Amino acid sequence: MAIDGAVVCGAVVARPVLRRVLPPPPTAGPRHDDIPFVFVVGFPRSGTTWVQYLLSARESTASATESNAYAAVARPLAASGSGIAGWTRVLYRYDRTERRDHGGLHHWVDRSTMRRLVVQGVVHPATSPLLDAQGVVEGVLDDFLARHPGATALVEKSPGHLHWARLILERFPTAKVVEVVRDGRDAIVSREALDRAFGARPQARRERAAQWRHAVATGDELRADPSVAGRVHRVRYEDLRTDPVPALTELLSFVGFDASPSVVDAALELRDFSVLQSEGNHHVRKAVVGDWRSVYDDRDRAAFWDVAGDVAAAAGYEP
């Protein structure tokens, strides 16, 4: 006879028993309406880390390296459902990223808390795997804020959350999304340098160009969606580099932070690329606008424009 139960610490425990001893997760996070939630997204190597640093320059902002929370939770549940198989995959991904020590949920929540959130998902399932995932992500952010009681804002940076932005804005009604856009050719060259640094073989430039086009087009669609009007802001990396004061002032004002001249100047000084490079941050490279021109040959230039020229031109870039 099948047992309606869940595996907890290696034992099968009946769900009715767990429901009595384990309360359901809260329907809303304790601080969602109290402080700004800012999600920084965009195509990888577009300057999202720098924007995160600029937004978290003040001490009262809670932040950490990218969580990739939706890929880590929603994707396994979408593939395997909200049963034991799906939740096992969620914990497997947590453990895998922790061992690799790259970005991941372990920077935001410890394993015991993550396991508790998973058990709550097993015992008190929502009406769909996606809602189950939303509940876990919410629980992770709640726990992170609980360990930063003095925080007046939360900034989360995961480039891939661009593709989950509508769900994020739906789950967190006061959240805002900052989309960082950079010339796709510079982003591709930067990614190639990072791949080589980690011993990986760079992907074909034409394929990367298609991915960049898809990401920027996704941002275009998001900003055109009336249901999220006023909650998505696009900042161009080039504007932040060449004319940073007005670009950062507008960005800080959008997310509801202090945008006074002294705050803007302090953030730009504290998070200057020379400072970040001296700290040995592997996310930071040359930070040069137009560096692709020294790398791309005529065929590369033509290929990029053939694949992504329409979106690039609309974003203000030239062949």
Would you mind describing this structure in some detail?
This protein has 14 helices and seven strands. The N terminus is likely disordered. Helix 9 runs parallel beside helix 14 and helix 11 packs across helix 12. With 319 residues, it is α/β, with parallel strands linked by helices. The termini are far apart. A hairpin with a 2-residue loop joins strand 1 and strand 2. A five-stranded parallel sheet has the order 4-5-3-6-7, sandwiched between helices. The chain has a two-stranded antiparallel ribbon with strand order 1-2.
Q: How many E strands?
A: 7
H and E string:
EEHEHEHHHHEHEHHEHHHHH
Low-confidence stretches: 1-22, 26-30
Beta-strand content: 5-15%
User: How much helix, percentage-wise, in residues?
Assistant: 40-55%
The helix count comes to: 14
State Rg: 21 Å
Q: Globular, elongated, flat, extended or rod-shaped: what is the shape?
A: globular
Protein traits:
319 residues, alpha/beta, two-stranded antiparallel sheet, 14 helices, 52% helix
Outline the secondary-structure elements:
Layout: E1 5-8, E2 11-14, H1 15-21, E3 37-42, H2 48-55, E4 61-63, H3 69-80, H4 84-100, H5 111-123, H6 129-146, E5 153-157, H7 165-171, E6 176-181, H8 184-197, H9 205-224, E7 232-236, H10 237-242, H11 244-255, H12 261-270, H13 273-278, H14 298-314
Parallel strand pairs: 3-5, 3-6, 4-5, 6-7
Antiparallel strand pairs: 1-2
Helix pairs in contact: 3-4, 3-6, 4-5, 5-6, 9-14, 11-12
Short description:
The chain is built from 14 helices and seven strands. The chain is α/β, with parallel strands linked by helices and 319 residues long. A hairpin with a 2-residue loop joins strand 1 and strand 2.
